[in-house]
Amino acid sequence: MTSIWGTCQTYFSRDSRYDVSAFQSLLTDGITWLDARNSSVGATTVDSYAHNGDTRTLSQLFTYGASAVVLPGTTYVVVGSNYFTDNTQTQQIAIAIHEALHITLKLDDGELAGWLVNFGFKPSTTFTSSEITDWIVGTADHMSTEGGGCKNP
User: Fold this and answer.
1) Mean of pLDDT over the chain
2) pTM for this one?
């Protein structure tokens, strides 16, 4: 992961909105992780954290199979059961990077996909958010040995 991610950091730094040290700090201690599997957390509304009037509960954010969601305008990332049951450890790390990119760049999935095109990302015509995570990983689950991601920009 280090070699590909180091290349990503170098390429991403070419955009003035991206600051390597701020991004690393965000990943290490700047994101507040909320586990929607915890009943008291899952029953809390989005508005409790994002203060945007969204009355959905955090557990309702996972009705479409997402693994993680950034609450708008915050550094809160909510993870659902899919994060733990449907992803390997490498994919979980890539999801963390994916969500941190949303926070850093203030882009939604479509906008983030467009930004990543500058670094070799090729979304499918039926683009899904998981394609971003898969691209960060490299291909499926081989971040440091297979193509994709920043290995072959």
Assistant:
1) 86
2) 0.87
